[in-house]
Write a structure and sequence with these properties.
Elements: E1 2-7, H1 9-15, E2 19-23, H2 30-40, E3 52-55, E4 58-60, E5 71-75
Parallel strand pairs: 1-5
Antiparallel strand pairs: 1-2, 3-4, 3-5
Length: 84
């Protein structure tokens, strides 16, 4: 099955693209996708513990199952800003 992955902030900078397609076997989970992403883009592995995933725009645990055509957002921690 084909999963469309959208990368944000630092994850996007590391990969060099805002979107990539990942092929996974049927019955795969967000955790399986995560391993596929790290295999393809090893630079993201250092962020593994802090990445948040959203499946079809809803936050998802690594155990959530995926379906062909799902869109998964990979969201690194956000920091910074200004004092008001």
């Amino acid at each position: 099955m084909r999963i469309q992955v959208r990368l944000f902030a630092a994850a996007r900078e590391i990969v060099g693209h805002g979107e990539v397609a990942i092929e996974l076997k049927e019955g795969s989970t967000v955790g399986d996708l995560m391993e596929g992403i790290f295999s393809r883009f090893p630079g993201l592995k250092g962020m593994a513990g802090s990445l948040v995933f959203a499946v079809n725009r809803e936050l998802a645990e690594r155990s959530v199952g995926l379906r062909d055509g799902d869109e998964v957002g990979v969201i690194p921690p956000v920091s910074g800003g200004t004092d008001v």
